[in-house]
Amino acid sequence: MDEDDLRRWAHRAADWSADYLAGVGDRPVRAQVAPGEIFRQLPAAPPEAGEPMEAIFADLDRLILPGMTHWQHPRFFAYFPANASPPSLVAEFVTAAMAAQCMLWQTSPAATELESRVTDWLRAMIGLPAGFSGVIQDSASGATLAALLTARERALGHAGNRDGLAGRAPVRVYASAQVHSSVDKAVRIAGIGDANLVRIPVAGPLHGMDPEALEAAIVADRAAGRLPAAVVACLGGTSIGACDPIDAVARVARRHGLFLHVDAAWAGSAMICPEFRDLMRGAEAADSLVFNPHKWLFTHFDCSAHFVRDPGALTDTLGLRPPFLRTLGHEGVTDYSEWSVPLGRRFRALKLWFVIRSYGVAGLQEMIRRHVAWAGELAERVAAHPDFELVTGPILSLLTFRYAPGGAGDLDALNERLLARINDDGRTYLTQTRHDGRFVIRFQIGQTTTTREDVLTAWQAVEEIAGALRREEAG
Ligand code: PLP
């Protein structure tokens, strides 16, 4: 392909993208294929000779699209959103054109300096005070791992990195059962071990960690010769949106000298609206906080904003400077690869810059406020319905419910069958969780192009499919 071909195919890709996004609402939201169906249609061997782009594009429509679940569909209400937007898409395109590897300041000074600037914008946008430094990580999982490694090394006086963990007092991490499994994974990778992730019970309407139980667990561990190191608080847990009382948790962590990491992967974006910030009260006392603009801030995956109070503690833990990575003549510059587990880094700041400038803070706030308002309205409908039960929420734009018509037997099994029917129907896509031992259906609102009408259409589909299922099963 020469430049003229690139121009032609890039235009074609732009047209394809605009057409796809304009029509995505007419497709079934979740892919309607069986496991292996796409794989079987793909040739077992790569082509020996190059193929025309026309043929590749034709196969994109014929083979790949039917196997896609449409995350930008306006009635995608499953998991958490990954809500992209046109300005972010354009930025991703030009980022791909430059294809820069932004591991060091000198490998692209603009990438590093823009990252410093836009993370500082984000910090201010969510109401975190100056004094936190930001970095864009590949994922919240990566940020949490970086935070727990830092916490481990702080507790061990950097002896873990130097000598390993063998023969040391067990390093302890505290979190409720509502935190994302990325915390469990980080604890494993950091060599802390499942047995040293201490689960603190939750209480109250936000299903938040009980600070007194946290205090008691730390005191008991110290008395037993263990090494309390970190607390992970959740702000918007994945299952039902649980929020820990961060201020009370932070007081306990401070009193005992523990590192506090806040996982706000989903809910953090909503903190750009001051009226929701009660949920993060106390976060200014954290050592580390992560949230994902790639979830709910209209920015393409991957883009996790990670804020740390003491970047030196992070770079002392993760930073290595072999001679081949030194920036000669500018030793004091920021090399963001020292802030994360991977060395190589994409230029992720550009899409954030496009998004924030294109919508403005007010435009972004407006979209998130609408999602939260529609979730409130939907929750009222669910609660008012005689055959449905609102189980949790709404917490911001996430609620859970279940179908509980009078006289039904095993409600877990009934709701599982209902969910399968809903997702086979294709008008919307919802996913499940377990809450208090019960199977419940989650409904989160966060798509860029979703309207109130889409929410009502999805709910109508749920009501209709549930009624039909019940009639069918009754006889
Ligand atoms: N934390 C929470 C609360 C999440 O909901 C998720 C993903 O849904 C994660 C962490 C992991 O995010 P990532 O995919 O960026 O690692």
UniProtKB/TrEMBL annotation:
<keyword id="KW-0663">Pyridoxal phosphate</keyword>
<dbReference type="InterPro" id="IPR015422">
    <property type="entry name" value="PyrdxlP-dep_Trfase_small"/>
</dbReference>
<keyword id="KW-0456">Lyase</keyword>
<dbReference type="InterPro" id="IPR002129">
    <property type="entry name" value="PyrdxlP-dep_de-COase"/>
</dbReference>
<comment type="similarity">
    <text>Belongs to the group II decarboxylase family.</text>
</comment>
<dbReference type="Pfam" id="PF00282">
    <property type="entry name" value="Pyridoxal_deC"/>
</dbReference>
<dbReference type="InterPro" id="IPR010977">
    <property type="entry name" value="Aromatic_deC"/>
</dbReference>
<dbReference type="InterPro" id="IPR015421">
    <property type="entry name" value="PyrdxlP-dep_Trfase_major"/>
</dbReference>
<protein>
    <submittedName>
        <fullName>Tryptophan decarboxylase</fullName>
    </submittedName>
</protein>
<dbReference type="InterPro" id="IPR015424">
    <property type="entry name" value="PyrdxlP-dep_Trfase"/>
</dbReference>
<keyword id="KW-0210">Decarboxylase</keyword>
